[in-house]
Design brief:
The chain is of the alpha/beta class. The termini are far apart.
Length: about 220
């Protein structure tokens, strides 16, 4: 219940103070639960996923965040999972048709650039056979970078949702490192491509503006 109450509140906040645009919402699986994965360049990122995806997501959060009293209260009410010992719990949730979300960079990027991914996303996908839903969050670094005290309001934010990808389920207890790395590379490449395409389109718009200004 609390999840949907908080989501309704943040939908209003993001509509009033941020120009959040969601692309690819039709790619969210209707008949299956999923593992949602996104880049992480701002503390706004979990809230963007929270607001944009109309399905309950059990996010894996850094264990250190639970030391902050009000944040621990908020995350527990929303049934998040603490990192470090979350793998078994996340697998259990996925096998019970719940959705799990994670930011595989392991923390907020300091410069907004996509960092290397940890192998957790591949472990969850290979162990459960559930689809992975890669997402690219754009604009949150400019709106609220890691060292900022307050977010910049009315900044345009975009969440791009890719088509789900499937990794062949692994039934043995041990998963070869090569399989994990291939799975991680596949997911990261899709997110990197979505981020790059957004940057390319922004560069083209900037060039067009300059050219139009120069012809006056």
């Amino acid at each position: 219940m609390w999840y949907w109450i908080f989501r309704a509140i943040f939908i209003v906040i993001f509509k009033l103070f941020f120009k959040l645009k969601v692309e690819g919402r039709e790619n969210i699986p209707l008949r299956s639960n999923f593992i949602i994965v996104a880049n992480h360049s701002s503390f706004l990122d979990p809230l963007v996923v929270f607001v944009a995806v109309p399905r309950k997501i059990h996010c894996i959060a850094l264990r250190n965040l639970y030391r902050i009293l009000w944040l621990r209260w908020f995350m527990r009410l929303n049934e998040t999972l603490a990192s470090g010992s979350s793998s078994a719990k996340a697998i259990d949730l996925l096998t019970r048709n719940r959705n799990v979300g994670l930011f595989p960079e392991g923390g907020v990027s300091r410069d907004g650039r996509l960092r290397d991914f940890h192998s957790g996303v591949a472990v969850l996908a290979l162990k459960t056979g559930r689809p992975v839903l890669p997402c690219a969050i754009i604009g949150t670094y400019r709106a609220f970078p890691r060292n900022a005290k307050f977010p910049k309001l009315f900044m345009p934010l975009t969440l791009k949702i890719s088509k789900p990808i499937y990794l062949l389920k692994e039934f043995s207890e041990f998963i070869e490192e090569s399989r994990l790395q291939k799975g991680v590379f596949r997911v990261r490449s899709i997110i990197e491509e979505m981020l790059s395409s957004q940057n390319d389109s922004q560069d083209k718009r900037a060039v067009n503006i300059i050219e139009k200004g120069g012809t006056r």
